[in-house]
Amino acid sequence: xxVLADILASKRREVEALKARASGHRAPHxxxxxxEAPRPRDPLDVVGALRRPAGAPLRLVTEVKLRxxxxxxxxxxxxxxxxxxxxxxxxxxxxxxxxxxxxFDGSWEHLASARARIAKTPLLAKxxxxxxxxxxxxxxxxxxxxxxxxxxxxxxxLASLARTAxxxxxEPLVEVVDEGELEAALAADARVIGVNxxxxxxxxxxxxxxxxxxxxxxxxxxxxxxxxxxxxxxVRRVAASRADAALVGEALMREDDPRARLASFLDAxxxx
Length: 272
Description:
The chain is α/β, with parallel strands linked by helices. It is built from eleven helices and ten strands.
């Protein structure tokens, strides 16, 4: 499948547009949009929010995602910022906001509007980050963490982007799928590493690989299970693993009102 290649081609065009906007230039057809400089704020403690002490419940990262290449359209019954606020009030340890428009119907505005509603729960800017300009955008729009995907950049770029994120006050959450990418994440000094159960190239799920890579994450690093959580039994299975936290996206996004299902997932995580 060419899904990832198509996403990255689109993202490279967006990066150039962000750079042009940052330098004060825009295409002739692009409207001029004045955006206030972000107000300084103290970053929230992402590592502290996601780390699971021995015997503690699995932390849940909930996601605002209106569409995905694998699932298609998802619920739009709540505006993104309202859904994010519901997740935070319901007990999510962190809320992930999709910022990609062409493939996920997300936007940087969704992140900014969620930040305006949520003060105490960390927000993850979930993007396909190729360039430092996207890290700066994530910070300016109110993110506390930014997703860095090891699969889509070389090792040197991954380390550089992680360093840029930390200097900007963001926690890099480095996504990996196998042991080689885990080595690259550790070489980048990642303190939070997510293992994606879904292969980004094929969109196929591999629970055995995910469990193996999660177990290989060193004890001092926060381990996050990404993708593949469909029901409370899946939450219980992940809670019994090495994982500190698990991301839940489509299972909640299929619900027009996710409160009851989120509560059941928190019960399964040992949080009630």
